[in-house]
UniProtKB/TrEMBL annotation:
Protein name: FAD dependent oxidoreductase
Organism name: Polyporus arcularius HHB13444
This protein's UniProt keywords: Signal
Entry's transmembrane regions: none
Pfam families cross-referenced by the UniProt entry: DAO
Signal is among the record's keywords: yes
One Gene Ontology cellular component: cytoplasm
InterPro entries assigned to the protein according to its UniProt record, in alphabetical order: FAD-dep_OxRdtase, FAD/NAD-bd_sf
Length: 499
């Protein structure tokens, strides 16, 4: 790699309309004492996203929002994003595989707004597993074995999703693109961190053979940006269509035993006083359409988790954090842009070109980021995805024309702009397993959670849902759950009590 301190490099760097090296400040902001109470429910009338609001894209949008409500189920899943629907899929599959007699087990999914209209319906569309990123930090915090598992979880999740899509012939239905992923390294500290993580991963025995470091000349030649980069395998897709496909597969297995009620927020959960009736359920869920009684409850509510679980608000729990996206038409052909997905600036910016549709000649590029321009707030503790932040929008509009001269037209307005709510945690890792309130450890028996992916959920949520589904099915079967090799132990709620 060429020297970084050349004058031209410095000039280009300062010309980027970005706040650089802001990651440490964001982390400090996350760790500040509680700035607000529990999260609100998802707000009505969210901004329109490409994934949800393209005509015909969300056939399940209003499913089960009118008519009779399911008043009784074995398992209630709250939230219809990738976590909730993946959990339903895994539970149905595991019941069959484990030989548990699940013939009559009923699952209902309750969703506050339209189907999959949370983060999964509003995100950046990347399915990018880590290959080596974060290994140094993980090893320091939790030891090398856990660092290896953190990578393994992402590899397991991404390859499982891609395998399932291919096995069920759904590549076209979900717009799966194997375009690889490129990380632009704008500053010297980013290069230093990347090299250290790469070396640590290699030393820990992680396979990094498919990872390539590119010099700024190589990047300029192939991609037209003048920064060094890292290239690795990766996919992009239409997240809501993947979740719809997972729902369809689950429905094929469970038939009428699976129900979905959109536009049905759960507003409270109360224990049901046990009666002599042995079939009595444990939990009574309140919705505006009436109560739902369940034996098991899965909180797949991500950013909104603390609304129903107030002990999870603030830095020791889940902080709702608003992300913003623009869909910008490129000024060059798809061949020139390439099919790679991208990130840069410590992951604050991320983008990829959509496959060409109809008679399009230049691709529509989905770009997210810009939160660092709101520092010191970073859009933390913001649940309002019905509005956009103009400061963030301005940064997003100026970024691609500056980073890829000639490929984007300066001043061009995006075709769409929307926000979505991510779920930040202090360690950036999700909570997976039984709900545990340290102040009353036995108060939530039968309630489970998988949430808190900190803006990096596509290569983790489906795997975390697999784990929590396994925990629930083991409990139903009266068996001990065997934690898979690929699941970081520190994701498990029982190991998170002292954060
Ligand atoms: C702008 C943005 C960009 C992102 N980009 C990427 C990316 O490119 N790659 C990546 O890997 N990750 C990305 N993420 C993160 C990723 O989208 C999430 O980690 C993932 O979608 C989380 O899935 P989930 O099912 O857990 O949560 P969600 O999809 O948010 O689903 C939770 C659901 O629960 C519902 N709900 C909440 N409370 C209740 C209640 N009380 N009753 C009923 N329903 C309720 C919500 O309405 C919502 O539909 C991004 C996120 C955002 C917001
Ligand atoms: C799922 O099923 C619905 C309705 O049955 C159908 O319209 C839709 O195309 C299917 N979606 C995917 C992605 O398989
Ligand atoms: C559940 O709560 C509702 C009020 O929301 C109440 O009317 C109902 O009796 C409760 N059901 C059980 C089984 O406790
Ligand atoms: C891509 O675009 C740049 C600038 O617009 C141009 O110089 C280059 O030749 C193009 N490359 C390809 C492969 O079309």
């Amino acid at each position: 790699m060429r020297s970084f301190s050349s004058f031209s490099r410095f000039l280009l760097t300062v010309m980027l309309p970005l706040v650089l090296n802001a990651i440490a400040e964001e982390q400090a902001a996350i760790e500040l004492p509680v700035q607000s109470g529990p999260a609100a429910l998802p707000v009505p009338n969210p901004t329109k996203s490409l994934w949800v609001d393209t005509p015909g894209a969300n056939p399940l949008g209003k499913e089960g929002s009118t008519g009779a409500l399911t008043h009784d189920a074995d398992i209630c899943i709250i939230g219809s994003g990738i976590t909730g629907v993946s959990a339903a899929y895994h539970i149905s599959r595991l019941l069959l595989e484990e030989g548990v007699d699940g013939k009559d087990l009923k699952i209902t999914i309750l969703e506050a707004r339209d189907f999959c209209s949370g983060a999964t319906g509003r995100n950046g569309g990347h399915l990018t597993p880590a290959f080596f990123q974060g290994v140094v930090g993980y090893s320091a915090l939790y030891g090398t074995e856990e660092a290896v598992r953190a990578i393994a979880l992402e590899q397991h999740t991404s390859s499982s999703i891609v395998r399932l899509i291919k096995k069920t012939g759904a590549e076209a239905a979900v717009d799966l693109v194997e375009g690889g992923h490129t990380t632009l390294l704008f500053t010297k500290p980013e290069v230093v961190v990347a090299k250290a993580d790469y070396a640590a991963a290699k030393a820990a025995g992680i396979n990094v053979d498919s990872v390539k470091f590119l010099s700024e000349d190589e990047v300029k030649e192939t991609y037209g940006a003048e920064y060094p980069a890292i290239h690795a395998p990766g996919h992009n897709l239409w997240p809501l269509k993947l979740v719809t496909h997972l729902y369809n597969l689950t429905k094929d297995t469970l038939g009428s035993k699976l129900t979905l009620h959109t536009n049905t927020p759960v507003t409270a959960i109360a224990p049901i006083i046990a009666t002599s009736d042995t079939s009595s359920r444990r939990w009574n869920l309140t919705t505006p359409r009436g109560p739902v009684a369940c034996s098991y409850v899965l909180h797949a509510t991500n950013a909104y988790a603390s609304h129903l679980l107030p002990h999870m608000h603030g830095p020791s729990g889940i902080i709702p954090t608003r992300g913003q996206i623009i869909a910008l038409r490129a000024a060059a052909s798809l061949d020139n842009i390439t099919k790679s997905s991208w990130d840069g600036n410590d992951g604050f910016e991320y983008w990829f070109p959509r496959p060409l549709a109809g008679d399009e000649t230049e691709p529509l590029v989905i770009l997210g980021g810009g939160r660092e321009s709101t520092k010191p707030k970073f859009e933390l503790y913001t649940v309002d995805d019905a509005s956009v932040n103009p400061v963030v929008g301005d940064t997003l509009r100026r970024f691609l024309p500056a980073a890829f001269p000639g490929k984007y037209e300066a001043g061009r307005e995006p075709e769409m702009e929307w926000t979505g709510i991510m779920a930040y945690t202090k360690t950036h890792d999700p909570f997976v397993g039984p709900v545990i309130d340290p102040a009353q450890p036995d108060a939530h028996k039968g309630q489970y959670i998988a949430a808190g992916y900190t803006g990096h959920g596509m290569p983790r949520a489906y795997g975390c849902a697999e784990a929590v589904a396994g925990i629930i099915v083991a409990d139903i079967a009266g068996k001990e759950y065997t934690v898979p090799d690929w699941l970081p132990r520190h994701y498990l709620t029982q190991n998170r009590l002292h954060e």
